Amino acid sequence: MELMWRTSHMSGSNAHYVEELYEQYLSDPQSVPDEWRQYFDSLPGYDGGPSRDVPLAPIRDQFYHLARDRRSLAPVASGTAENEETNRKQVRVLQLINAYRFRGHQKANIDPLGLRIAETVPDLELSFHQLSDADMDTEFQTGSLFIGKDSAPLKEIIQALEQTYCRSIGCEFMHIVNTEEKRWLEQRFESVRSRPDYSAEVRKHVLERLTAAEGLENYLASRYPGTKRFGLEGGESFIPMVDELIQRSGNYGVREVVIGMAHRGRLNLLVNILGKSPSELIDEFDGKKMIEHGSGDVKYHQGFSSNVMTPGGEVHLALAFNPSHLEIVMPVVEGSVRARQDRRDDSEGDQVLPLVVHGDAAVAGQGVVMETFQMSQLRGYKTGGTVHIVINNQVGFTTSRQDDARSTEYCTDIAKMVQSPIFHVNGDDPDAVLHATQVAIDYRQQFKKDVVIDLICYRRRGHNEADEPSGTQPLMYQKIKSHDSSRTIYARRLVEEGVLDEDEVKGLIDGYREDLDNGNHVANALVQEPNSNLFVDWTPYLGHRWTGESDTSFDLKRMQELATKMCDIPDDVDTQRQVAKVYEDRRKMVAGSLGINWGFAETLAYATLIDQGHPVRLTGQDTGRGTFSHRHAVVHNQKDGSIWTPLCHLKPNQPDFTIYDSFLSEEGAMAFEYGYATTTPNALIAWEAQFGDFANGAQVVIDQFISSGETKWGRLCGLTLLLPHGYEGQGPEHSSARLERFLQLCAEENMQVCVPTTPAQIFHLLRRQVIRGLRKPLIILSPKSLLRHKDATSSLEDLSDGRFQMVIPDQGKLEAEQVKRVIFCSGKVYYDLASWRAENERSDTAIIRIEQLYPFPEESLLAAIESYTNLERVVWCQEEPKNQGAWYQSQHHMRKVADQVNPGLGGELGFAGRAESAAPAAGYMAVHSEQQRSLVDKAFNG
């Protein structure tokens, strides 16, 4: 044993060997030498199995520290029982140090109200580690503890640990696997014991920002008592926190900060950080109209942008618009940030920073939080790390019981899934808040990972200013009623320490109030004449009126060159057999010996846009190959798994073509692309669902952003959704993209809903979305069976010379005067109708395809049928049940057009489709087939 103590874990050079032994012991205790097994058995918390009272990790992690220690621990003399015990105590001290790193946060003073019941933490007790007060004056080696000396008395070690981990900051970072990150964080907190010695000027600035935060709330409370504003009272330290984050990030070279947050504190941030004019805010409180068109939105949903000056230069701030779905703004911010980083060629995320502010209940309760954390290190979505701030009021609306609000100890535990460090900080200790903020931004810049600051505070006035909180939280609000504000507490401390006097404190209050009364800007770093180069230029896309027509033609020769280039796969790329067949067919399509199919027409649309200078970003589930294996825009080398993306190799210095198979998310992924599209107006941004109905999972994004963002906030967006739709007998969940829901949301020309039926149509539709200046969301109900349908082909000339047809007239050779019936339809059912007509030789019926259902093309539809002067019957045919699809939302348009051809005809508009149903489609092929035959027959004979 003497030799073991002298040559193993007491010597840094052999620590790795000890680590391996311990890991081996955990797997099989009998596999290690007897003396080591006896030693490991003696460790606290391990009696042949993990203790229920203490996590195993702190014990095991001591060996990580021994292995990574920069200083070799000096050998201790051995040979006596006394020395043996000293050696054992040395190891127990190291265990104690680790225990503080793991669990010190549970003992920390992080609740400003003192209502948090701190549970007893057994492994922070001396007795747990078989130490006692008698050991307090004994000097032990400090191991990896950063306190500036190799050894110290136990009482000094404990004092350092208590000051570092159990005061106003509760640190959680030992769940991080990466050793470098842990060592870095230990150094940052332990070296200053979580309380740096800030200069008087720094602390005065913090007080000034606290005064501004409190001053605005007091001003609004006195001027508009009882008016809902979701004030920041109780969480005023949020303002100096964000101020420091922006200033420090600017010093790092960050040029843009994109902020997402819900309601609480939003008005305060707008005025005191972003520099919104107080007079403009007052106008909003007074109910004055602030926009020329649209519905507008409440003041605590509004976005804003401005520029502020930092020590590192000018920084552009953008506060994202956010509805009441709270955390849904999180992926929107990430998408906007990624777009800005791509525009700057900022692949590491050095120049654009995402800042997301959460509420304690929402961050724990809403699933999109998990989805967005999952994005944080993915190729297609990462942004170099996000700084998360939780304004933790310790109560979600009226849910004060933790066992009603979440199943985890902290609301921030979700962040551990991506190994983010979490700093719980007492909002009444602004110096601690400042330190946590500085470490957070430094960590993000150093490691390009997410980091979380949990600002523990309270809300002085309840959920909103019209709410009486004591009805549901009587004890909390008894405490709050007598509790001084953060500003008052901090000002008192600074006066007591001689940093400033009472007159200076009063001067800050009076000066801020005077600025508000005079309507002056109160964001002290605001740039009055901002650098416009930091903005996204939307000027070319403003003021365009709706038009369905757009010249989307493309030079045929150049298209053939691009098509040939797209089919050129290097010899060293071993292509899978079916994929090779796809590309062989495409070469035939270029030569004219095969008709252009859907997949090739779609990728040609991307190629021509890229050739004309427009970036393309395509994401979704199975997007590289296409869910139905029609796209194969990414070729996988069968030899080594490498990939070849032809659209990335069209010409030198071409715009980006990015295509990513997304993780299996709808809400977070679609919101990300919305944020991206609202920041990149010159590109085609498309999100594809595996099946159209999967978009159901993103209904919040569709309702709150895509369909209404322009009318609420004046926010333009050209996002395209590709939603496979069509009834092929695949059951309720794989048939309908829920067309009816999109049409119900359509108004004021807010978006486009299209159902293209030919390759040429998808080609021109995608090009139209980018070529014209109008920026509206585009919902494409894309096909499944039509991807390979023998009749669904086009020629290169259709692509080069044509344009998107909102209505496709009948393609048969009918005599206009013989037509007695017209069938209107959209989508795949057209081919069923055309096949039935051909088989039954019906020359009295025309089939008209309405390819754009919104904005409804009444003029184009009239032009398609006005030559049928003997028209007697008009029928709308759809595959969907009667209560779904386009019937209820579009019939009034069709009636109006029919009446213009033959008055009264519209009133008799017929319906051919499935009967009303609670489910979108039948789950049995036989039932599906019978329903399909019936609705087609009814279209001709009903």
Supply database-style keywords.
942 residues, alpha/beta, Rossmann fold, 4 domains, eight-stranded mixed sheet, 32 helices, disordered N terminus, oxoglutarate dehydrogenase (succinyl-transferring) activity, thiamine pyrophosphate binding, THDP-binding
Structure description:
The protein is an alpha/beta fold. The protein folds into 4 domains: 2-170, no CATH class; 200-534, Thiamin diphosphate (ThDP)-binding fold, Pyr/PP domains (Rossmann fold, 3-Layer(aba) Sandwich), CATH 3.40.50; 556-801, Rossmann fold; 807-941, Multifunctional 2-oxoglutarate metabolism enzyme, C-terminal domain (Rossmann fold). It contains 32 helices and 24 strands. The chain has an 8-stranded mixed beta sheet with strand order 3-9-10-8-7-4-6-5. Strands 14-11-15-16-18-17-22 form a 7-stranded mixed beta sheet, with helices on both faces. It has a 5-stranded mixed beta sheet with strand order 19-21-20-23-24, sandwiched between helices.
Strands in their spatial order, largest beta sheet: 3-9-10-8-7-4-6-5
Shape: globular
CATH architecture of the largest domain: 3-Layer(aba) Sandwich
Which ranges are low-confidence, i.e. pLDDT below 50, for 5 or more consecutive residues? Answer: 1-16, 44-78
Per the CATH scheme, the topology name of the largest domain is: Rossmann fold
Instruction: Give the % helix.
Output: 25-40%
Structural class: alpha/beta
Q: So how many helices? A: 32
Radius of gyration: 33 Å
Can you identify the CATH class of the largest domain?
Answer: Alpha Beta
Strand fraction? 5-15%
Count of all domains: 4
Q: How far apart lie the N and C ends?
A: 96 Å
Mean pLDDT, to the nearest integer, reads 89
**E-strand count:** 24
Q: Which homologous superfamily in CATH is the superfamily of the largest domain?
A: Thiamin diphosphate (ThDP)-binding fold, Pyr/PP domains
Largest sheet: 8 strands, mixed
